[in-house]
Specification:
With 287 residues, the protein is of the alpha+beta class. It contains nine helices and ten strands. The strands form three sheets. A four-stranded antiparallel sheet has the order 1-6-7-5. Strands 2-3-4-8 form a four-stranded antiparallel sheet, covered by helices on one side. The protein has a two-stranded antiparallel ribbon with strand order 9-10. Strand 2 and strand 3 form a beta hairpin. The structure holds a DNA duplex (14 and 14 nucleotides).
Length: 287
DNA sequence: TTCTTTGTTCCGGA
DNA sequence: GTCCGGAACAAAGA
């Protein structure tokens, strides 16, 4: 479920551990990720120093002197550090809810500071792509992206302009990466619940009060999640083998048939499919 | 055995 | 040309 907050948390950890380190070895067990990893991949990266690591939407961007490595975790990709050997993986990993099978360890990166980074991906929808120092906005994947949710350009006027000639449902709009980038199924459900807006509403039908509320809540909930995840990273022992930290804060996702978690509301949470994705909403306070 | 889950791209129909 | 949403992709757990 890596959406923007999870990727941001991964990025922060990577920055802490890998800036100015050199890749000294790469082992690829399975090249068939979403896009096949070409044979020259390792050769192009070995000996290169990581100068900068950034995030755009759900993409991780590693900057080298002459190359840019673009990474996407897909649906189930995880980056996990291990210092000594794989048996220690559960003790040193910073990611959440780890239950990693070795057979899904597809890539190993070894660094000159002794760290080893493992890319584990059950569904193999993630990818790693190398670019020749192109400008970031020339990369196809990034070109199509809408504004970051935290940016000032993600505002009432932008929302109104984008939706005025569209028929799309608000739930789908929030997950449309060309509208706003980084929100997936979970946070779209949560943001709509928080804003008391029903997921099936036409995005065009929202009034300016609702739009402002929704935009503010999106920014709030993403920041809150980053904060929570970030604080759990500090204590590695707490993350080891423990259930995910994010789902503890879900107010509507996965809560079908339960009572609405809003104290002042007596409604019930329903689960429906919207464009093939599970959508949860309260029949009483979300209108 | 079948359904569900995740993000993105591709493609058909309106 | 644009917009919308279904299908496909992989694998595992219920």
């Amino acid at each position: 479920m890596p959406e923007l907050p999870e990727i941001e948390i991964i990025k922060k950890s990577l920055v802490k551990m890998l800036i100015n380190t050199k890749i000294i070895k790469i082992k690829i067990n399975n090249r068939n990720l979403r896009y096949k990893i070409p044979p020259q991949f390792s050769k192009n990266l070995i000996g290169q120093k990581i100068l900068k690591i950034s995030r755009r939407s759900k993409y991780l961007i590693f900057h080298f002197k002459k190359k840019i490595l673009l990474a996407h975790m897909g649906m189930s990709g995880k980056l996990v550090f291990t210092k000594l050997n794989e048996k220690k993986i559960y003790k040193t990993s910073f990611y959440y809810n780890l239950n990693l099978l070795k057979k899904h360890n597809h890539i190993y990166f070894k660094f000159n500071n002794g760290l080893k980074l493992i890319y584990n991906d059950v569904r193999r929808f993630g990818f790693f792509k190398l670019y020749n120092n192109e400008k970031l906005n020339k990369i196809n994947f990034l070109k199509k992206l809408g504004p970051e949710p935290f940016s000032k350009s993600f505002n009432l006027i932008y929302f109104t302009n984008f939706t005025k000639n569209r028929e799309t449902k608000i739930k789908n709009l929030l997950m449309d990466q060309s509208f706003v980038s980084g929100i997936g199924n979970i946070y779209s459900n949560e943001a709509l619940f928080m804003s008391k807006i029903a997921p099936l509403r036409k995005s065009r039908s929202l009034n300016s009060v609702e739009i402002k509320r929704l935009i503010l809540n999106i920014k709030k909930i993403l920041k809150f999640s980053i904060l929570k995840g970030g604080s759990s990273i500090k204590d590695f022992k707490n993350t080891a083998g423990k259930k995910g930290v994010f789902q503890e804060f879900f107010n509507v996702y996965g809560r079908n048939n339960k009572k609405c978690s809003r104290i002042s509301c007596n409604g019930k949470i329903y689960k429906i499919k919207i464009s093939g994705r599970s959508s949860y909403y309260c029949d009483s306070c979300q209108t």
